[in-house]
Amino acid sequence: MSGGAAATAIRHHPSDATLVAHAAGTLWEAAALVVGAHLDRCAQCSATVRLAEAAGGALLEGLPPAPLASDALQRAMGRLDEAAGRQEHPMALPGAGEPRLRWLAPGLRHSVLLRAPEEGTLRLLRVAPGTALPRHSHRGTELTLVLAGAFAEETGRYGPGDLAEVGEAVSHRPMAEGPEGCVCLVATQGRLRFGALLGRIFGALARI
Ligand SMILES: [Zn+2]
To answer: What percent of the chain is modeled with pLDDT above 90?
Structure first.
């Protein structure tokens, strides 16, 4: 009884509030890049964003023309492309051509693609199989898009295309799963909050 279900196996999506903010062009840039990369893979959320854009357009009818939100996203994607070029195409994962990721901690490598006070931090993170990040919470929202592999945490299991949106109140301990570990694109606002002493040392050393 497949009913011709689409091939997409994406089970975790951005919140409606995040999608509407994306449509309105008001998301911080790091988040907009992660959501944009999810939209490339998710027809369902793309439809929601188009609907929100249409609704917003209807509301704005009669107002003076303003730059489209998609301009901001395109500019941001351009910056990501530039960063990707410098990083030897970190998006082309996994497989051919290991991206130039810097050592962060045992089992963790990363590359910071964007870091700005108002726009958040965007990093590409590669987590080795079975490696967990120390338990932490956040000073703002964290958006994580899985590009390859999978990770699991208290809120569920996330595979390619899945987006984990975690608010300030959530404390979690993501762990990479499967033989290939996990490669993800992570947008964060502010520094992470580590509870345990070991985690605080990790956070200070890694500036994460
Ligand atoms: Zn989606």
So the answer is: 46
